Amino acid sequence: MSRASWLALLISLVGIWAAWMVGKNVFEEIPHIEDEMAYVWQAKVIARGHLTVPEPEHRASFLVPFVVDHNGQRFGKYPLGWPVVLAIGVFLGARSLVNPLLAGFGVWLVYRLGQRIFSTPVGLLAAALTVTSPFFLMNSGSLLSHPLGLVLSAAFMLAWLNAWDPLLGEDGSQRWLAAITAALAIGVLALTRPLSALALAAPFTPQGIYLLLRGDRSIRLRLVVFGILAAAVASLLFAWQFAVTGDPFLNPYTLWWDYDRVGFGPGHGLIEGGHTLSQAWINTQFSLKVGASDLLGWGKHSWIFLPFGLASVLWRRSWGRLQLAGVALSFVVVYLAYWIGSWLFGPRYYYEALFSLMILTAAGIAFLAGWPLQEGEPWRSFPGWGRVRPLLTTAVVAFLVALNALFYLPQRMITMYGLYGIRAAQLQPFLSPEAQKFVPALVIVYENKWTEYGVFLDLSSPFMDSDFLFVINISPTANRRVAESFPDRMTIYYSPDEPGHFSLSPPPGE
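-> structure tokens emitted (510 positions)
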């Protein structure tokens, strides 16, 4: 490998370490939001070779967020892509390493794409900026699906370029391998985040149509095979829906919330009359406002080099550069059709387009500093006072990165610690020797809010065979019926307000 590639590998390893540190110290390697809880539940089921489990007898008492009961079976509402990958980590006992490893691979792909579309300096800078991004770190340390989505999206674009770039040589075997890789990447993305796959495909569709109409026989054949393979992998989404619901066109999202649909009008979203373009624009503005800070942590101005990156695209246009710019725009446009915005982990619905924003930002910096914007291009020199231009640009970037590292990033991470009041310390009483005296146990949780119950789901098995099974308090009658259904388990009545206190009798008045 070249020295640049070794440096990129080092940056990727830093990305793995940084993501792992966020997962360990900020999120404490446990789920915090409903999405994560559902993903972990699905991963536990898949790790044992199943897609569903039998619906519990008292299903309301065994609530799991975003896990639905239908036709006597219980299953997660999310497509299989990410739960299957996460299940590998669950099976190996390394759940907390899955996203950091994907994050590091994502950083490497950012470097390769930046190098491929622009130059090695742009690729290295884009990779380094990615590692400093609060947006990147928050999602990479979580148990959400986005790091996998980033890897698949960046891998798709890199493979697409290698398959059909007219400037490359005529190595047929390499082009075929690249076309197959691109098909698999976007197909698996459709199994992970279907709407993101649609957004990603949009900027590449015009070139695909052009090549299908104007390309030679070998190009058209590769495109046909690409399309068939991508569609075949993506169609597994419908096979999964059929397997869990009995209907290939029944989206499990709607079994939890019947209004959770993509589109506009009645039946889409919470607003009376349904989702509208006006509401879509409000959501988008809010998401972009959050992203303006979270993208790079430069106050509200993380976007300041993007116009110069776009200028570099227009200055020397190519399919790759135009598609790179189109990716970020496409995600914003396509997600207008979803009824809710994203802000808690940054504008995470756009996360799979992160490579586009990082590379364009790096290209904008290179454009201003006079660094090479194409491989093999010389470093520019400027006459007179222009000589300070590279130094000034570098100084501004260094100042902004330091500003993020010293102020924005630490404060943003503090806001994510103990998210929704969930902390690993809440699980410790059940890991103590005192608690082990009661196993196997049925624990009825008297919560003030659902998260006080949800945190314990990480210790519970979907197959009802863990040391502790946690029950959400519904009513004395419901609690009694659940306890009667598990005569071989000791019943514990537990209040999160009294951590470590295990009561063998219900509260007074029950």
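The longest strand covers residues 441-445.
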